[in-house]
TrEMBL record:
Entry-linked Pfam families: ATP_bind_1
Protein name: ATP/GTP-binding protein
Organism of derivation: Streptomyces mirabilis
Keyword Hydrolase: yes
Family classification: Belongs to the GPN-loop GTPase family.
InterPro entries assigned: Gliding_Motility_GTPase (IPR052705), Gpn (IPR004130), P-loop_NTPase (IPR027417)
Entry keyword GTP-binding: yes
Annotated keywords: GTP-binding, Hydrolase, Nucleotide-binding
Record-linked PANTHER family: ATP/GTP-BINDING PROTEIN-RELATED, GLIDING MOTILITY PROTEIN MGLA
Amino acid sequence: MDFKSSETITGPRAEDHLPHTAQAAVKIVIVGGFGVGKTTMVGAVSEIKPLTTEETMTQAGIGIDDNYGSETKTATTVAMDFGRISITERLVLYLFGTPGQERFWFLWNGLFEGALGAVVLIDTRRLEVSFDVIGRLEERGVPFVVAMNTFPDAPSYPIEDLRAALDLSEDIPIVQCDARRRASSRDVLMTLMHFLYSLTMSEART
């Protein structure tokens, strides 16, 4: 019996194929509180069409989710965001954006597994949502850099004041970024890679 399907099976898009020159792949997580711009950053910097798991926010989240400072946000990540960027012809970063709402934090353990480092996105209007995020990274021993996402109405503070407020050591880089812009987001990732390299060199000297 001949069987014909009306569905066409297609493979990955040509632009999604891993570059043939790639020799090393690194897993990076992008973390932060609710509404700080994690999905935006992954989407802006990814060279492939990003995978997102955003769902529309409903009445069920009222009283559970803290959306202070992001009241106009209508969707939220419920599992992860995923993207990819080639830093050089040989080095590829796989980006995993974590859900920001605390009730989805149980998913973080799997996302952190095998991660070489992390970017902590912060909103200076709501620094308090970053405390637990940074604490989790420190508990797991995941190296990280901090990136201040520049929202239009967000206050600007001196780097050292932010470092003190977040209780960060002097060696952890703090940079400013616009998560909507690819070049700015890529600069953050490069800062992380340089930081990870410096840590590797320090360990090699000891």
